[in-house]
Amino acid sequence: MLIERIARAVSPRLPQVPRRVRLSIGDDAAILRPSPGRELVLTCDAFLENAHFLADVHPPESVGYKALARATSDLAAMGARPLCFLLTLALPRKRTGRWLDAFLKGMSRAARRLRVALIGGDTALHSTVAIDITVLGEIRAGGAITRAGARPGDVVYVSGSLGRAQLGLELVLRGLATPGARRWRPLLQSHLYPEPRLALGVMLARRRLASAMIDTSDGLSIDLPNLCEASRVGAELWLDRLPAVRVPAEILKRGLDPVALALHGGEDYELLFTVPRRLASLVPTSCRGVSLTAIGRIVRGKGVSLVGPEGRARVLPRAGWDHFRNASRR
Amino acid sequence: MLIERIARAVSPRLPQVPRRVRLSIGDDAAILRPSPGRELVLTCDAFLENAHFLADVHPPESVGYKALARATSDLAAMGARPLCFLLTLALPRKRTGRWLDAFLKGMSRAARRLRVALIGGDTALHSTVAIDITVLGEIRAGGAITRAGARPGDVVYVSGSLGRAQLGLELVLRGLATPGARRWRPLLQSHLYPEPRLALGVMLARRRLASAMIDTSDGLSIDLPNLCEASRVGAELWLDRLPAVRVPAEILKRGLDPVALALHGGEDYELLFTVPRRLASLVPTSCRGVSLTAIGRIVRGKGVSLVGPEGRARVLPRAGWDHFRNASRR
Hints:
2 copies of one chain form a homodimer. The first copy, chain A, is α+β, with helices and mostly antiparallel strands.
């Protein structure tokens, strides 16, 4: 069975399965003994060939790494600490050899980095590569940060910089960079090997700083309105504060606009969170080397307005940007 | 978003989300508050077009129902009580209309019947229908029945009858019955709408009767050796005790052999379990109308031998039977 091959390939390189995992791969189901006083946080995330990645373009290491990283980012967005995951993997036969080995190497790297253990899964043959991952994490009971807690007056923060992953994707799709090429490697890193902001999420939850949180998976112009809608508030976004990706001059010429990338680019997996005004002075300027930037504020009403340096506001268009990614959205 | 449409369509018809589910669909992740003294049991199960079902042959109600039922059967096989599930659903655009409505109707029926609540999910567009379900259940700490506890001398039991689902599949694949036709409906029921033996699993776990358990998803000739391998024992299977499906005379002529169906047919989702000899008298003859039959015993050594009515033993070939189902196996 393929699942046993996966377990053999991935498990020795995985962090030790936590003691509360009482039964792992090989039986009908896995068994988990929850810690007292903790709640479980669960999410599932599909990563599909053609919809989310191109098997002939994206390196299998990246596909394996990113499938797990993006699923785990949803736990970061709750402030939870990830614990373990289940993997469903459907593959064409031609991907069961070297492609699969490289895929598992990437996934195993993500598992070590994110400290999550593989505890179960399912496999099948399929016409295209289809990956689905369920990640489980833990958090102090009542301590999760949902999307729904933002209040007028709260300050809006974002971690890191925005548009990096979309820049990488654009370079790949426009044939300006191949994933294997050295030259643009730093620009492709966020697209191929995103880093969920787990330590930041846990810190914000533990110190009870954030009133609402979401990860930037669809792009700021979709994720911020989603947070606002869940909280039944509006927001002002300060255009000149946006930590937009730095685009090299040579690539700027090709018509890639850093502000558009920052507003509409997806898959950065940064944390977008709101902090009550009275707590804003407690927010550090960075967390483990990742900058934290105030980019706006929550207001009464609906929708997100974009405030330029001249102080004039316009409505932020809720726009995705890339048809490749959008093919998977409705 | 499709997931919201799913939540709207399925949730009102679903059993009430248990109080320990603190956050359901609509945020980055779901939150579950575990019950004290209980362990969580988790399993994921892929149900893929062409590998596991044919979207143009199998009714969408059946696809939705069966996807959830087969995933939940893995919890029955541990003796756990199911609680909630996450659904990942990838669909071609042409399946997002009436097909999806019927699919959700079937899934909602299974959810009501199995008493599991939808708490999260993910959706995407895809070239074929790909379903992945993670089901969570609970069990008294230490109470789960694994595959690994069978000991020489234990009696092997199976619930219900064997080969029913394969008979239904054969009728459909050979064009002898269409899923909509009245005439053979009872014969197709197990293939289209399988019933996981949840009450039986819970009873066996609570009364601590079973030493090992597995559900018959791949067929007896694969599932029994799997249980034996996990327990490091062998087994004798009594051929004349096998509760094989009844095949109507009209269909017997077509070359469908009840014993072969019972030995090698998959997807019955019955429970196959072992009971220590001293407890065997406590096993009832049926549980909620489902018969329980002693079909063999556990022996020292390896492998499963088939003992005929004349007492002669031969090795049970570990054989799947149908290439349609086998396409998804390795």
